[in-house]
Each structure stands twice: as C-alpha cells, then as structure tokens.
Design goal:
The chain is an alpha/beta fold and 246 residues long. The chain has a domain at 95-160. It has helices spanning 42-49, 76-83, 100-110, 116-129, 145-158, 175-190, 202-208, 226-231, 236-245; strands spanning 2-13, 16-27, 31-35, 57-62, 65-67, 85-88, 163-167, 194-198, 211-216, 219-224. It has a 6-stranded mixed sheet, with helices on both faces. A 4-stranded antiparallel sheet has the order 2-1-4-5, covered by helices on one side. A hairpin with a 2-residue loop joins strand 4 (57-62) and strand 5 (65-67). The chain starts with a strand and ends with a helix. Bound molecules: adenosine-5'-triphosphate (ATP) and magnesium ion (MG). Magnesium ion is lined by residues 42-43, 167.
C-alpha cells in the first residue's frame, strides 16, 4: 500500500518558488530519508504533507486522504488526518511545565479522549520503549537534549500514527547524544513504522533508510538506495554535498 503519494507539488512563498515539481511515493512500512542543501525545500515539503502549508499545485495523498491546492487548512478532515501523522522537530517539542509522563499522555487524553489511567499506562509503555522509564516524572529542563527528543518520539508513538515525519531531530544535539536518539529511530523503523526523515546522518541513512531522496533547489534530483546515492551519486550537486559530509 502507498502511504504517501506526492505528485508534481509546487509551493511558493511570494516570489520564492520553493518546491518545483516534487513527486515521490512512500510505501507503508518504508523509511525514506530526505537529504539536500539548506534552503532546498526539505522542511517545506514535510509541512505540506501535514498540510501546515497549503500547496499551490499538484496533489498529496496521505493514508488515502487527498490534499489539493484549493483546500482550506482549517478543514475538519485535516484535523483527522493530522491525528494520524506524527511530527517531530529539531527542538521546542515539549511543554516545559509538564513532566515526561504528562507530555506523552496529554494528547491521548485530549485528542484521543482516552481515560487518565489508560493514557498513563500507554505513556509509560512508550517511554519505556525509548529507554526512559526512570525519567517519567522529570520535567524537560531536567532532561538532556537527547532524552527530550526521545520523550518527543514517545509522545509521537503513543498516538499510534500511520506516518511519522521527522525534521532534523538530532541537529541541535551534542554528538554523544545523537547516537541514542538515532538508535531509537532505527528501532522504530524496524518495527514497521512508515517514516519520512530529514537528516544529515549518513550512517543512519545507510543502515536504516530504505531510500534517499536528494533535494536540490526544490526538486528531487536523485533517488535510490542509500549506498548508491551516498557513494555513487550521479549528479555533481549530490557528489559535492556528500563529499562535504564525509
Ligand atoms: N513561511 C515561509 N515564508 C517565507 N519563506 C519561507 C517560509 N518557509 C520557508 N521559506 C523559504 O523557503 C526556502 C526553503 O526552506 P526550507 O525550510 O524548506 O529549506 P530546508 O531544505 O528545510 O533547509 P534547512 O536544511 O536549512 O532546514 C528557504 O529559502 C526559506 O527561507
Ligand atoms: Mg529544514
């Protein structure tokens, strides 16, 4: 089954043509990594998939729901859709005044209308999954950046999304904390979750991604198996990009 089907999507901010005809498919259970230079439109595409940004042309189908240029971003069907999509960002993911447990259980109670006891049970299970069972009562400022990102992943998993979008979730972290977050992601990927991941982590991409889409100037100019894209890129742009990273 195709989980995400993107067809010829265009998106501009005023005069700036940011997405210039993006097409890509993500099958159920796949982990697709998006790489490419700063400003090439990677984050914009993720925001369009979640319809935080309306698209100008083309179409996006997510888990059977069709998103088109003329739709209002306030449609009820979008709220339903967003419940099925998890989104983790680089930072500012957690509510600072809530414990890890409450951060994870809040949306279960409010959005999914699950009773407090069951919501906490689910939250504890998900925090355990990301290796943070001993931190359930900690507040975000009592956690390392890596631990905070793992809470954010737990919160995402608790909602049982059909698709998870991750936008450079390790790029604000110190090197020694990156590994623990990537290990959690790799495990989530192996569990069969469908994910679209923006990252510069080559090792992670090689070991855990099914495919890399390489963005350049609002287009996907290379797409294929991670090894192939990283080690034998065809275009000068991708070659330059990967040389700079290694
Ligand atoms: N809301 C917005 N309004 C105006 N311009 C925007 C907006 N969001 C993004 N842009 C512009 O669109 C272009 C693409 O931005 P985007 O964030 O998608 O790039 P990116 O590939 O994620 O880059 P990075 O690797 O730096 O995160 C940039 O030139 C950016 O300044
Ligand atoms: Mg970005």
């Amino acid at each position: 089954m195709i989980m995400v089907e993107i067809k010829e999507v265009h998106k501009s901010f005023r005069d700036l043509h940011v997405l210039r005809g993006i097409s890509m498919d993500v099958r159920e259970g796949e982990s697709v990594v998006i790489m490419g230079p700063s400003g090439s439109g990677k984050s914009t595409l993720l925001r369009c998939i979640n319809y935080l940004e309306p698209i100008d042309a083309g179409s996006i189908r997510v888990d059977g729901e069709l998103l088109t240029p003329k739709m209002s971003t306030r449609l009820a069907k979008l709220h339903k859709l967003r419940e099925r999509i998890g989104f983790v960002f680089q930072r500012f993911n957690l509510f600072p005044h809530l414990t890890a447990l409450d951060n994870v259980s809040l949306a279960l109670k409010i959005v999914k209308k699950i009773g407090p006891e069951q919501a906490e049970e689910i939250a504890i299970r998900c925090l355990e999954q990301v290796g943070l069972k001993d931190k359930i009562s900690s507040y975000p400022d009592q956690l390392s950046g890596g631990q905070q990102q793992r809470v954010a992943i737990a919160r995402c998993l608790a909602m049982e999304p059909r698709l998870i979008l991750l936008d450079e979730i390790t790029s604000a972290l110190d090197p020694e904390l990156i590994k623990e977050v990537l290990e959690v992601l790799a495990r989530v990927s192996r569990s069969g979750m469908t994910m679209i991941i923006i990252t510069h982590e080559l090792k992670f991409a090689k070991e855990s991604a099914d495919r890399i889409c390489f963005f350049y100037n609002g287009k996907i100019i290379e797409e294929g198996a991670p090894e192939q894209i990283i080690e034998s890129s065809q275009t000068a742009e991708a070659k330059r990009f990967f040389q700079a990273l290694t």
